[in-house]
Design a protein that fits this description.
about 675 residues; alpha+beta; Rossmann fold; Dna Ligase, domain 1; D-amino Acid Aminotransferase, Chain A, domain 1; 17 helices; globular
């Protein structure tokens, strides 16, 4: 039944998705209520909403997963409906029951539909009954390790172990050899228990050269179901998406029709309502074909990558969610929907790529993007839930922003993405920006030859840190000496600088990068022109200051270098790369304390969930020592050398800080 549009809604989430929902609600004249934990008291989504209510301390179990606290906040503020965003309680049917029992509207699917798709084993059985093709595998209730190992052998390696609850790559392990199955299963179960409270797993055949293609669906309460075409999400690492695009490269109308029909039937089979995504795995070893895709799972919520589908359809998905939840029919029918151009989305994260994509923390001392729209369709759109000065904490997902580009064709949209990444600068925390920039130019990706193994195959080239080019380090020396200041007036005497009658003036500066100190001599050639001598050679350059950047000329080549000065630290960025240099205080003495060659230190703040050794144990290099969980992902720490466990400073359940000494391995020669 139709009803009036909501006057006020509560967003049961945080960060970028909370800001995204607030933006559309504001455009529609709907008041918004944010909820926040102690860690998010000053967060962007809190400032953006009309009202905000504290729901608990920083841990998600004590705040964003406390369904009753969220219901109480909605009642307290007079909100009529609850939008769950993605993650947290968005796919929790018990929370939906709480919302509806409180007389509120859940802006999402019915609880029964979420239950039908919430457990992957039951979902696959339902899809088989509905005639939707599914990947061969074991989805049974018997979870004994011996049976699961036997089923994996029956299916044939390689296989995927997948947590039956949740998503986001958590609780998922690729196993290529029988001897690795037991350890992989134990790890997947621990991660699944931590993330979803359910350790049960299913086993699936791993498709060679798989492509991850998903179909966006929408359904209303009047029997209408449509699909809004496909997204290709094959560029993944650790089973998590990195860059998504719509439509999918190489997609034919016949395959699109077949996939769309299967997705619509999947939604109809469970009485779906609202926004959802039906995910398929497709055989990417050759051209896409109508009998070469299989159902993986259905995400009963709005997806992180929904902006690429908004870009090619012109539809505001949050607006459709609100209208459907308010009882309205879908605004468009299938025949009214068209694909317009191409779109990409890159996920900018605080993470240390060379160290295995470990989540990073820190304060965003600087965050800048090229001119872009936010939470609205545009050639360049940047959706973010953080601002300069905000802290990336260990409590939540380390996403900084989603960078979305749109163009009339794939080449144009991808070029715009690469240019946008090159013009982005982040300082204060380690990010995957350089990795994204390199990936956007990777030849196979540029040619549209994508599958889920692309990043793994080219990982070394994509993740190798790039040393600063000689001209960048030379420019850093010039900037560190304060030689780029604009003249105070047009008086030519103000432009002379350090004049000396007997020789060109010169200065000396020491810069530290990656712990190494390097000396530089800077010779003044003319106004804005310098010759810089460093341990690697001589660079002649000219530099003109811009607003937050420098126009750099070397050997007739002109480029723009983004520049950030923060005390003694300089950050210079170009082509998606950034480098930081520090001018040390000559009076400061280094303490010189080091943990030692055999030290095992925490690569990030986290929780110790498993310890595999005890003091005095003999280990070989690479042997597993312990498991550290951070941001709901497991990270296995191994022995750095052969030797004996001389010191073990942690136990299961310990919370450790970044850089904490966890263990020390004593070698035979120590």
């Amino acid at each position: 039944m139709n009803q009036r549009m909501f006057q006020k809604i509560l967003i049961a989430n945080r960060g970028e998705i909370a800001c995204r929902v607030i933006a559309t609600a504001r455009r529609m004249g709907i008041a918004t209520v944010a909820v926040y934990s102690d860690a998010d008291a000053g967060a962007a989504h809190v400032a953006m909403a009309d009202e905000a209510v504290r729901i608990g301390p920083a841990p998600v179990a004590d705040s964003y997963l406390k369904g009753q606290a969220i219901i109480d906040a909605a009642r307290q503020t007079g909100a009529e409906a609850v939008h769950p965003g993605y993650g947290f309680l968005s796919e929790n049917p018990a929370f939906v029951d709480l919302v509806t029992a409180a007389g509120l509207t859940f802006i999402g699917p019915p609880a029964d539909a979420i239950r039908a798709m919430g457990l992957k084993d039951a979902a696959k059985a339902a899809m088989e009954r509905a005639g939707v093709p599914v990947v061969p595998g074991y989805h049974g209730a018997d979870q004994s390790p011996d049976l699961l190992a036997a089923e994996a052998a029956r299916i044939g390696y390689p296989v995927l172990i997948k947590a039956r609850a949740g998503g986001g790559g958590k609780g998922m392990r690729l196993v290529e050899r029988p001897e690795d199955f037991t350890d992989a299963l134990a790890s997947a179960r621990r991660e699944a228990q931590s993330a979803f409270g359910d350790p049960a797993c299913l086993i699936e055949k791993y498709v060679t050269s798989p492509r991850h293609i998903e179909i966006q669906v929408f359904a209303d309460g009047h029997g209408n179901v449509v699909h809004l075409f496909e997204r290709d999400c094959s560029l993944q690492r650790r089973h998590q998406k990195v860059i998504e695009e719509a439509p999918a490269p190489g997609m034919t109308e016949a395959v699109r029709t077949a996939m769309g029909r299967a997705a619509v039937e999947a939604a109809r089979a469970i009485g779906y309502r609202g926004a959802g995504t039906v995910e398929f795995i497709a055989d990417g070893s050759g051209p896409l074909r109508e009998n070469g895709f299989w159902f993986m799972e259905m995400n009963t919520r709005l997806q992180v990558e929904h902006p690429v589908s908004e870009a090619i359809t012109g539809v505001d998905f949050v607006e459709w969610q609100l209208r459907v939840a308010a009882g309205e029919p879908l605004p468009l029918r299938q025949q009214d929907l068209r694909i317009d151009g191409w779109a990409f989305e890159a996920r900018l994260y605080a993470e240390d790529v060379p160290r295995g994509f470990l989540p990073a923390t820190g304060t965003l001392d600087h965050l800048s993007f090229p001119p872009a729209a936010s939470f609205a369709r545009a050639d360049l759109r940047v959706d973010s839930g953080v601002r300069p000065g905000d802290r990336i904490s260990p409590w939540y997902d380390p996403m900084i922003a989603k960078i979305i580009t749109h163009g009339p064709d794939r080449a144009t949209a991808l070029r715009r993405l690469s240019e946008a990444l090159a013009a982005t600068l982040v300082a204060g925390t380690t990010t995957n920006l350089a990795f994204l920039s390199a990936l956007s130019r990777q030849p196979d990706f540029v040619a549209g030859r994508v599958d889920t193994g692309l990043i793994a195959r080219h990982l070394a080239a994509l993740t190798t840190p790039v040393a600063p080019p000689a001209e960048i380090e030379a420019l850093a020396a010039v900037v560190a000496l304060g030689l780029l200041a604009k003249p105070a007036s047009s008086d030519p005497w103000d432009r002379i600088g350090a004049f000396r009658g007997w020789a060109a003036p010169e200065d000396f500066v020491t810069l530290v990068r990656d712990g190494a100190a390097r000396d530089h001599k800077v010779l003044h050639l003319a106004h804005g022109a310098f010759q810089v001598t460093s341990p690697d050679g001589v660079v002649t350059l000219s530099a003109d200051p811009l607003d937050g950047a420098v126009r750099l000329t070397t050997d007739g080549h002109v480029t723009t270098v983004r520049l950030l000065a923060d005390g003694p630290t300089l950050t210079l960025g170009r082509d998606g790369q950034s480098w930081s240099f520090t001018r040390p205080d000559p009076l400061e003495r280094a303490e010189g304390t080091q943990a030692g060659e055999g030290a095992v230190v925490a690569p990030m703040p986290g929780l110790v969930t498993a310890v595999h050794v005890s003091p005095g144990a003999t280990v070989r290099q690479g042997d597993p020592l312990m498991v550290l969980e951070a941001m709901k992902m497991e990270h296995r720490l191994t022995a750095p050398r052969d030797g004996t466990v001389a010191e073990l400073g942690v136990a299961v359940g310990d919370q450790v800080s970044d850089g904490a000494l966890l263990a020390r391995i004593e070698g035979a020669d120590d």
